[in-house]
UniProtKB/TrEMBL annotation:
GO terms for cellular component: plasma membrane. Belongs to the otopetrin family. This is OTOP2 protein. Keywords: Cell membrane, Hydrogen ion transport, Ion channel, Ion transport, Membrane, Transmembrane, Transmembrane helix, Transport. It comes from the Eukaryota. One of its GO terms (molecular function) is proton channel activity. It comes from Rissa tridactyla (Black-legged kittiwake). It is found in: Cell membrane. InterPro entries: Otopetrin. It is a multi-pass membrane protein. It holds the Pfam family Otopetrin. The chain crosses the membrane at residues 43-63, 75-95, 115-138, 150-169, 253-274, 295-321, 341-363, 383-405, 510-531, 551-578.
Amino acid sequence: MGCGHKDDKASLASSQIASFSHQPHQPPSTPASKEVWKKGGRMFSILLAVHLALLACTLVSSGAFEKIAVHDYDVFFLLTVMMLIVIIWIIFYLFGTSRCPDAILCKDSHAGPIWLRGGLILFAIFSLVMDVFKIGYYSSFYSCLSAIKIIYPIVQAIFVVVQTYFLWISAKDCVHVHLNVTRCGLMLTLTTNLAVWMSAVTDESVHKAHSKLKKNVTEEIFRWLMKAGMRSSSAEECNCNSQICQIFKNGYFWLYPFNIEYSLFASAMVYVMWKNVGRFIDHHSHHIHRLKFRLFRRTFFVGIVLGLIILVSGLGVLILYEVQVNSSTESSKKSQALTMYYIFNIVCLGLMSLVCIGGSVIYRFDKRDMDRHKNPTRTLDVALLMGAALGQYAISYYSIVAIVASTPRDAISALNLTYALLMIAQHTFQNIFIIEGLHRQPPKEDHKHDSHQKDLYGLTFVNINAVSLRVPDSGSTLAPSTASGAEAIHPSDFVRSLTAPKKMNWRRKFLREISMFLLLSNIILWIMPAFGARPQFDNDTELNFYGDSMWPAIVDICLPFGIFYRMHAVASLLEVYIMS
């Protein structure tokens, strides 16, 4: 596992780099021979990840039910072991693999953009706060709990810190030593994040079901739903009765959405790193675009203002919905809350669909070339957008079938049907807009006069009239050197380049407005279901049609993908905004 046996590979790599410098226009075909069988190493790591994922999925799903002899502290034990192994491997990578000679010959400029890593750090902070609340909650009655219940959040906090630091500094690495070990380590990291995600989603779903049914069920069913992994002989003694315990319990359940998004963000970044293991990048064909993020420049503010209006209105609707649905037992207030929720979402989804169609039409007039270079990050973004949208598609189609086939139909059913149809349309049009934006080349400046304008723009204290006096009125060129090496430029072009301000193309301005509006709208559409506004559980049409067992299971499986879609769309739209 050391670096000594890599000397022959290091010499080979150095000769390859030298050949790159002498032949800049040829693709790097020879480095592929460095690894004997690249697909074999990938296949082994994939098989490892599949088996671990199936094992974790089996334990997590079994631990959600009390009648199955699998407790959630069994799940916590498996996740703790997996996280400890990942922590050990990350330390080995940082202090061993990455410091070997010629370990990282190139970096993928598209992998781990700053806004993605910034979002990862934001979710990591909230995940750490959630772990603190968990430790406080379980410490309130540690005497009747398994020790793993307290060890698990401590290990998870360490895992979040170590992994976040690892992804922040290594997300762009293309590793060329310890290839199979690195692939297996990255796949183990990805599987661990997905297992933590499955555990969090399952725990949150059980908690939501318990909160909805606590007031209207018998003690026997209540204890069945209350399954929390405690020892069966002392379940009653471990009830959370103190006020501080309730604060910790409610606090960490409210922070679950951030931990869920953190696991998915980390999984996406780890997958890109896995794809880049052993990859050589030809920097002559792999263009690096250094774009500046200017939020309040070159914009009409229309998209930002409308997006903020939607965001603030959505927060108000969320608060009223939570108060009227969860805190009141009156059916009239529940109907009012559902009506308000559906009307807001219908208006929001309708505007977003129209805006996405307008953006796709603007792309028809866009003269920028399509970016056809190999880009694992963009490929993953597209796959995640298309795959995560399937969750909301499934919920919408199930709702449509239930509403159309059910009788009688009321106003809420009509609003629900409109909401489901618009949800399908909005996801489709938004995916088209985002995918087309991700495949566009960044805007290129007019390079016709760049070499001449560069010197003239540097004359900050020169009077424009003085410059024009030095330029002859005839059609000759400014200097004789231009006649031999460059295109002849009329003198009036130089004066015009000084006096005329740089103007952004109108298409780019509209695309920026559209991207910012969609970004803010997706944020509120992520916040609402992530923090409790889930009409799928409060609308009786689907529950009566599919039953109390089938419909909650469909929503619990599909809704996390819909929530992740919104957050991933925010990151993709931010990239589209910067690329416009």
